[in-house]
Amino acid sequence: MASLASVLIIGDGTAGTVVANKLKFLAGKRAEVRVVGNSQRHYYKGDFMFIPLKLKDYKECYKPPEFLFNAGIDYVKEEVVRVNVDQRLVTLRSGRTLSYDYLVIASGARLAPEEVPGFEGEARHFYTLQRAMELQEYMDSFQGGNLVIGQCAGPISYPSSTFEFALMARDYLESKGLLQKSKIHFLMPSLGIYSDSSTAGKIASLLGSKGIEVHKEFEVNTVNPKNKEVISVKGEKLNYSLLVAVPPHRGQRFVKDSSLGDDMGFIEVDRNTLNLKEHPEVFVAGDAAKLPIDKTGSAAHFQATYIANRIAMEVGGNYTPSTYMGENAFNAATSVGRGMTFYSSYSSSPKATFESMSDFLIKWTYSSTYFSSVVRGLI
Questions:
Q1: Phi, psi (degrees; rounded to nearest 5) at 69
Q2: How do residues 170-185 score in pLDDT, each as one tens digit?
Q3: Which of 246, 265, 294 is the last residue of a domain?
Q4: FAD/NAD(P)-binding domain spans which residues (predicted)?
């Protein structure tokens, strides 16, 4: 009787959970599936932008990680400190080592606000539940002035969230009678979804039509709390009354400690197979991967599905070469009550549908679908 294939997945977020659940269903008893992660809660992060504007209850955006894994998956609650891909060994904080036949690195990204001078304690954001709740208090007490919304340099998760927040914040201020006393500034970066001139133009036009001033190619480099001033990578300056900026994103520390990542800690992989170079048994998915597409939950889901299918076919002995196409599809809010859907792939720049109420409702209610079906590998 052939031995089980040992599949080790690092990360208990979207990509890691989807790979585990889909793979266990597809491979069944042919694979031993083990997940290593130390998250206290599994968040649906797409809801975070709604919380500061009092559009969602924070209790709807998380579940216990253990609750989301299907039967037969071994969940190890520990932190990874090092990966040796040559010896096929993963070392945990406790000193325990785990071996594998297949490794999936789906460790996500971490926030690094300390890398931007003046950022901590001055800039606000909604990229963790705690910070989203804090921003709710700042938005509640905001009485007018310059509301500046943007991001720091480099790739971030959910890059569309900044322009979505700007558009919904406009409606929020209007509902409070503060729109005439306020000026919203949107700092548009030059990468990801904004690197396509047509898409960037459509977003800028949409923002402009709502009275939001767009500052193109403006990525936050420094914050001057004394002067209430944000400074771009190019040296441009802008005064703010309230600054909402997404902090830099970096790969997990074990990635750099294991010499697997670039300077930012993201792992370069074959864009068509998601394999680590010279290691066909190692895959990378989600925010941990360095790929020429935006880091979104949708992209992580497409990648996880591809990897689960690949491994299942290989352990089943019926592998047929297949290619990951860089698919991405996500809903974006364009106001409180309307939205649009963006589609893209390696071969197609982002294309947006027309605005509709249904697109907004899909996004606003998606956490229920996410927890009941998406991360469980059912879709």
A1: -90, 135
A2: 999 999 999 999 999 9
A3: 246
A4: 6-291
345 band by pLDDT with thresholds 50, 70 and 90: very high
Going from the C-alpha of 141 to that of each of 36, 136, 177, 344, the distances in angstroms are: 41, 9, 13, 39
User: Taking a C-beta distance cutoff of 8 angstroms, is the pair 185, 210 a contact?
Assistant: no
User: Is residue 289 domain-shared with residue 218, that is, in the same domain?
Assistant: no
Confidence of residue 2 (pLDDT cuts 50, 70, 90): low
- Whether residue 56 lies inside any domain: the answer is no
Residues 152 and 83 placed together within one structural domain of the fold? no
278/150 Cα distance (integer angstroms) = 38
Closest CA to 306 of 289, 286, 322: 322
pLDDT confidence tier of residue 1, bands split at 50, 70 and 90: very low
- What are the strands of the beta sheet with 220-224, ordered from one edge? 220-224, 229-232, 237-239
Q: How far apart are CA 311 and CA 25, in angstroms?
A: 12
Task: For residues 256 and 188, state if they share a domain.
Answer: no
Mean pLDDT value of segment 311-315: 95
DSSP secondary structure letters along 89-128: EEEETTS-EEE-SEEEE---EEE-GGGSTT-TTT-B--SS
Please identify which residue in the block is written with the tokens 């106001």. 335
Q: Who wins on pLDDT, 179 or 322?
A: 179
Contact 186, 212 (CB under 8 A): yes
Q: Write down the mean pLDDT value for the chain.
A: 96
Structure tokens at 303: 């990648």
Return phi, psi of residue 139, to 5°.
-65, -35
Phi-psi bin for 257: left (phi > 0), alpha (psi -120 to 50), beta?
alpha
